[in-house]
Design goal:
globular; disordered N terminus; FAM69_kinase_dom; 12 strands; Transferase(Phosphotransferase), domain 1; membrane; five-stranded antiparallel sheet; 436 residues; single chain; DIPK2A/B; alpha+beta; three-stranded antiparallel sheet
């Protein structure tokens, strides 16, 4: 009887699923019919030359202007699906794929980001107005000149920690060394290279500070550039509220069911990223607060894993921590695993990440949310290293190391497990290369 009921339930579920897909296709077709005129118009014009569409009309309440000439000259164009405005309903993150063309270099693929959903961008306008007038609505451009973004005028030499501390994750615990680096590498000015804030124009200074407050991702990409070996997408430029970054490749999720050898290589690279961002010659620890399959991509040619969403990253200056010596600064900090009913969730204390020299957060984040059997994403479980070959299962080391990296049973067990896991994944990668 139970089997008959389960079979009937299965048929109902499948029928309901097919019905939902059918209704979705019908609705999409109706939308296409209703927007036929707009559809043809979308293919005939380049909206990326429209000042209002890219948010150039909101400057200096914007992210920059370094790429405006390229946008206005029509060198940046949406790829086919990006031209269909009715699809923006599904594009909640406002991320678009486009082609960028140079006469001598040809065209290449780039990614355009508004750095927030429509609601988040509207909230930015409201926050600026509230800071300026105390009301949620105002003349945005005039409002900018009444905020603290404008009060840091040309007489101010340095951007100091007490001014911007807590504005965003990037500056949750800023050091002067970090802020000098951010200003010196600011790409939205022609006179980059100086850490003196007074060398920026008024509009450039306001754009820098607004970016720092509302979405510091462009500043992370500029301050820790891919050209110097940091595992981030390459920042290209901005126009208004549209930022351009280099297209990396398909998101990590696309490789969830890739051959085992490929997944091992990707897992090894992810652990290397965790190590690089935790321990490097610059003594900056970059802690990933948002770790999911969507936030990493893989290069199509070199197979290199890159972080493509850098909004939620805390940068802790280890040199400053050693200098100030806050309470327990030299005690190793172990992130605590906690059960969670949501996907890609992490448990952490920003203040502790900012006050300890030795922290295992990045290993914990990568192991729990991407690699181990505890990882859940889009209805799946098992992580990137799911279903290992029989000989790896029999060996038992991989499962043991992943478990210890996610839910350590020994004191400081995650630190040792992460080290051994990197070594073991390296061995597996070398073995697979030998057997080819």
């Amino acid at each position: 009887m139970l089997r008959i009921l389960s079979l009937k339930f299965g048929r109902v579920y499948r029928c309901g699923k097919f019905l939902f897909i059918f209704l979705f296709i019908v609705a999409l077709f109706v939308i296409l019919l209703m927007n036929t005129h707009n559809l043809f118009a979308s293919f005939q014009r380049n909206e990326l030359t429209d000042r209002r569409f890219i948010g150039l009309n909101k400057c200096p309440a914007c992210f920059g202007t370094s790429w405006c000439r390229k946008f206005m000259n029509g060198q940046v164009t949406f790829e086919m699906w990006g031209r269909l405005r009715f699809l923006d309903f599904f594009n909640v993150k406002n991320v678009y794929f486009a082609q960028y063309g140079e006469p001598r270099e040809g065209t290449r693929r780039v990614v355009l980001k508004r750095l927030g959903s429509n609601q988040e961008l509207a909230e930015i306008d409201q926050k600026i107005c509230k800071r300026a007038t105390g009301r949620p609505r105002c003349d945005l451009i005039q409002g900018m000149y009444k905020t603290e973004f404008a009060r840091l005028n040309g007489d101010v030499r340095l951007l100091t920690p007490e001014v911007v501390e807590g504005w965003s994750d990037l500056v949750h615990c800023p050091s002067q060394r970090l802020l000098d680096r951010v200003v010196r590498r600011y790409a939205e000015t022609k006179d980059s290279g100086s850490f003196l804030l007074k060398n920026l124009k008024d509009t450039e200074r306001m754009q820098l500070l607004m970016t720092l407050a509302f979405n510091p991702e462009p500043l992370v990409l500029q301050s820790f550039p891919s050209d110097e070996g940091w595992p981030f997408a390459k920042y290209l430029g901005a126009c208004g509220r549209m930022v351009a970054v280099n297209y990396v490749g398909e998101e990590l999720w696309s490789f969830y069911n890739a051959p085992w050898e490929k997944r091992v290589d990707l897992a090894k690279q992810l652990m290397d990223i965790a190590e690089q961002l935790t321990n490097n010659d610059f003594d900056f620890a970059l802690y990933l607060l948002d770790v999911s399959f969507d936030n990493f991509a893989v290069g199509p040619r070199d197979g290199k894993v890159i972080v493509v969403d850098a909004e939620n990253i805390i940068v802790a200056d280890k040199r400053l921590i050693k200098q100030n010596k806050p309470e327990n600064y030299d005690v190793w900090y172990e992130s605590r695993y906690e059960e969670c009913d949501k996907e890609a969730c992490l448990s952490f204390s920003k203040d502790i990440l900012c006050s300890r020299v030795t922290v295992d957060h990045n290993y914990y984040a990568i192991c729990q949310n991407l690699l181990s059997r505890f990882a859940t994403w889009r209805g799946t479980t098992g992580g990137l290293l799911h279903d290992p070959p029989a000989d790896v299962v029999k060996d038992g080391r991989l499962t043991a190391l992943l478990d210890e990296c996610t839910r350590p049973q020994k004191q400081y067990g995650r630190f040792q497990a992460a080290k051994e896991l990197r070594e073991f994944l390296t061995q597996l990668t070398q073995l697979s290369n030998t057997n080819r």
